[in-house]
Amino acid sequence: MKKVLAAMIIATMTVSALVGCGSQAAPAAEASTEAASEEASEAAATEEAASEEVAADGQTYHVGVLQQLEHPALDAATEGFVAALTEKFGDSITFDVQNAQGEQANCATIANGFVADGVDLIMANATTALQCAAAATDSIPVLGTSVTDYATALDIADWSGVTGKNISGTSDLAPINEQEAMLKELFPEAKKVGILYCSAEPNSAYQAKVFEECLEKDGIEFAEYTAADSNEIQAVATTAASECDVLYIPTDNTMAGNTETVKNIIVPAGIPAIVGEEGICAGCGVATLSISYYDLGYKTGEMAAEILANGADVTTMAVEYAPQVTKKYNAEICETLGVTIPEGYEAIATE
Asked: Which domains, ranges and CATH numbers included, belong to the chain?
């Protein structure tokens, strides 16, 4: 009996002890939960503060985007530019994106409008847009993109890589000597090369000159075929197709906006074209050594962020170039013309 009573007492004490432990553990668990909750809240607050760091003082930015005309390359550059700045500033930045529809007068009107509105920065997409923005302001930072040669566009004789003005940006110049090497690789039997571009675009003339120098070194005959505007393209392209074995079309906004016209002339005539960028190649070319215009625009956006957020001096910012180039070809036109593309080329995606 004493053994039973002792066992009962021990059992009672054990239960009491367990209950006591439980009553102490509950507040500890609650305290731990509260601490974890506080830590999570602090972490969330820190993350939110970091995301709003750029606009901590309530600063907002208004950027004007002047695009010379609509075509895939320029559209992609604008898209990349907006994406880079949106990632950086979020809702603290707004854009006024306007398209000049290929008209110089429209470019000037839009640029002057941005200046009147007091935008914080102007992005000028393509050469004429850059020239009009430069004429409109010498104080608001201007960043160009899809511009081949800034020295030519801005009439700078002693080019050092920086403009010394309120202007910088990115260049879409692909290695022209490599484009000429591409022509030789694909068409080694070519006797005469026609260089087709718009004479109203100084950067196209610059590319043509460099390409011609490469052809001269290789002893290949060439001739220029220039159109003053889109109305002359059909006649000029027809003449070029009748006199040449291969055409070279540089990065040219007028030609880029009229690739269907060029294609309908040169493809039936059996004349292939090596071109300066992917958008033109997709429309009327056989192959190109092209850059990513989205990446180019994105890089321009990063430069803009440095100016807006960090106060970078645009007058000392070096013009930037595309990080890489890619050999691409138009599979449809190559098949039509019976052109065999060697390894190392990427087919242009088609819808």
From this structure: 61-172+293-318 (3.40.50.2300), 176-290+326-347 (3.40.50.2300)
